[in-house]
Amino acid sequence: MIVNLVLDGNMHITATESNGHKTYFDTVPEVGGENTAAAPMVVMLQAMAGCSMMDVAAILRKKRKTITELKMEVEGLRADKHPKVYTKVHLKYTLVSPDAEQKDLDRSIELSQNTYCGASAMFKQSGCEVTYEGILINQ
Question: Rounded CA gap, 24 and 9, in Å?
Fold first, then answer.
């Protein structure tokens, strides 16, 4: 995989991957940015959540469960000193489904976190503590 990046502003960066999809980065004015896009470390957290959410959705669908809504809230804590890596991340999945059971959601999250999600594995292998919970709303 190859990605190309271009600095096209003070700290604004446009990244383009081989399929032509673009990701934008920036940072806060205090460090030279204009706050027009997410900072790279925020995007890493979003990517981890997106990777796992795709896993969970795919697993639930394989179980033939209806997904009315699937949301995540992610809290990441970073080290105080440079490099300010993530030290703790908590993932909270909320599933709205008329036919899923808590065990379906829990198993889907467990499979994502322990088997499939490469982004979560990268966080864990760097020493980050990753915790998670699943909330099911039957509607």
Answer: 11
pLDDT tens-place string over residues 74-123: 999 999 999 999 999 999 999 999 999 999 999 999 999 999 999 999 99
What's the pTM? 0.95
User: Who contacts 78 (Cβ-Cβ below 8 Å, separation ≥6)?
Assistant: 41, 84, 85, 86, 87
Residue 7: partners with Cβ closer than 8 Å, 6 or more residues away: 13
Contact 120, 48 (CB under 8 A): yes
Count Cβ neighbours within 10 Å for each residue of 86-121 and write b for 16 or more, e otherwise.
beebebebebbbeebeeebbebbbeebbeebbebbb
pLDDT in tens, 7-65: 999 999 999 999 999 999 999 999 999 999 999 999 999 999 999 999 999 999 999 99
